[in-house]
Amino acid sequence: MTTAIRVHETGGPEVLRVEQIDIGEPGPGEARVRHTAIGVNFIDTYFRSGLYKTAMPFVPGNEGAGIVEAVGEGVNFVKVGDRVVYSATPGGYAQARLIAADKLIPIPDGISDEVAAAVFLKGLTAQYLLRRTFRVGPGHTVLIHAAAGGVGLIAGQWARALGATVIGTAGSEAKIELARHNGYSHLINYRTEDFVARVLEITGGRKVDVVYDSVGKDTFDGSLDVLKPLGLMVSFGQSSGAVPPVDISVLNTKGSLFLTRPSVFGYNLDRATLLDSAADLFGVILNGKVRVRIDQRFALTEARAAHEALESRATTGSTLLIP
Question: 210 with 229: CB under 8 angstroms?
Fold first, then answer.
């Protein structure tokens, strides 16, 4: 039997139950992974609350690292004993799990299991945002909301390494100070400052090329107001709540803007793309351009406390569950 966290009905962190489950042996194309570290991400709270729909009961968690314990028939992507990491595959809040083997990526030497689990989903998110949704480079000015969060700290460093001027928002002076050491040229405390006015001030009225917004309802309208004509609004999360329905004509009146709502799932639909994205991510970690912060660790059985901390915005950097 394996200790796991399961959800039987949607709701707050209190619906996360510690249970014993039997996961069995891997079938064709599957592997069994014993977790050494499990990533905690805002998307986990969306499934738990019912914002994102899934069948009940379910084991939350979309990111983990560990050791391959067994493989099923036809598996040649990985072998027993390999250190591996995965993302975008629900079922992670458990000591061990079965998973489609083609979702597993070998962890390179020089990167620990904890760093891999802390960075993979958030790092793949930063990768597609900066390298594919909008290809950031020298001369670009970008705005990243939630600068001190897991994605924000990675994206700030990576965007700076790509030559961009990086503006960030955060909700406390402590978070501002943290982000300052992770790539950001300019920082705005959204609790005490009008971020729209400050972006216009910082850019001399020229505005920004792209906004990366994981906050959602509270920042969406203002984010459109700081975009240059033909700028891109990237709404990739909703920690403050879902964005209300949008009258698309506002994109015209504000400067023929572009709007997209992407996800890491859609950007990594096949193994070849996933391998390329992972290689890009691991490369910037190994060459020192991106440093990974793990600021919170909870025991697996403390998943409720981890969600409470995350949703109260008390966390910075990455959060792990340790089996």
Answer: no
